[in-house]
Amino acid sequence: MQHADAARHELSDELARVGAGDCAAMKRVYDRTSGKLFGICLRVLHDREAAEDALQEVYLKVWHHARAFDRERASPITWMCAVARNTAIDWRRGSERGAVHAAALHDGTPQVGGDTDADILLRQCMDQLDERQHASIRSAFFDGYTYAELADRAAVPLATMKSWIRRGLERLRKCLDHG
Amino acid sequence: MADPAGPDDRDLLAAELALGLLDSDERADAEALIAGDAAFARDHARWEQRLAMLFDEVEEAVPGASVWERIDARIAPAAVPAPPANDDMPAHDPARKWKIATGAFGSLAAGLALALVLQPEPPPPAPPRVVIQTPDDVIVAQLQGSDGASILALRLDPVGERLLVRATAIPDGAGEPELWVIPDGGAPRSLGLVARDGETSVRLGGDLGRLLRDGNTLALTLEPASGAPHAAPSGDILATTRLTQL
Questions:
Q1: Considering CB atoms only, which of A23, A86, A111 is closest to B57?
Q2: How many angstroms separate the CA atoms of B118 and A7, rounded?
Q3: Which of B56, B72, B96 is the last residue of a domain?
Q4: Which domain holds residue B17?
Q5: What is the value of ipTM here, to two decimals?
Q6: What's the half-sphere exposure (Cβ side, CA atoms, 13 Å) at A151?
Q7: Do residues B16 and B128 share a domain?
Q8: Could you read off the pLDDT of B97-146 as tens digits, one per residue?
Q9: CB A95 to CB B70 under 8 A?
């Protein structure tokens, strides 16, 4: 955990330099985080070229908004991941979602490695959900689908999809909060 | 889930917003709640934190070297104007991104950010500037008409991707209210139409977010509903204010 704290500190310091217009710091931030953020863009877009375009936009946002990042209130890598997720989802919505297949609903294989306690807990809690809840929550998060879109894609009534996911979120909350 | 009843339902609504499950109307309602209800804002932040754990599952991947080169070309000091191939967001029409309340961005649980004070410009008499601080230290500013009455309340989201605009008392008149940002010495750029009542979430696509800064001006005009966002204002100016960064 100490290592994680130090890493968070360091990245926050680098972002502060980026916010001041330091290009070298920007390169270091890119080298350190682009693998993760590109993974997120790929996960959302399922297309290398589009993911690279989105990634460029992500880092330009980081460049322009780093000054606004508040290290007291957020983890730097979580902030950057959220920027990547939102940018990629927005990118995909903008380019019509024709090319994305239902495969997105089924590729929830968790990556093994880099386990922190939080990772393990989340995995345990997600594993408690039934497969549909699991897949739907992932798909909402990474594909940016609304209730209506998820219901459409799973060919179930909207109310059914809502109650699946709400029950899943309730279970997730209970599990994450109480271990 | 337009009006959540108990605290549990509210917490679920916060989860649904964080996960991006809501359609655009529901999302606008929920975002308005964030602006006005500190407990709901906390629930939402907690869910964003919980869900952020999903990022840990994503496998890393190595982007091509050209990505950094393109970024570098855009941020390097004294960069010569980028060649057309390096243009911002090649596959996207930025205008499409200005549509109101349709952006797919979830709000982020990062800290705020740009604190804006709106200093009313002429027409005189210049009303006092008003800055309201919510319990969450989010700076909210008001746009006032020439009589000093509040017309719009504005709030910038943590990463400057969206401007939440709440109409308080937009004067009657033909046309729909359209919000503009006017770069110092530049031409007005439309931020899109805003609703006469309630909240509008204005997505700051392309470089619009960058324009909300010191020295630039915000203006509200009445414009025809069709064709928005417009290339240039044509209607009555209801108010203008100059932005000052704290």
A1: A111
A2: 38
A3: B56
A4: 7-56
A5: 0.81
A6: 16
A7: no
A8: 332 222 222 233 222 233 343 434 434 343 334 343 333 334 456 677 76
A9: no
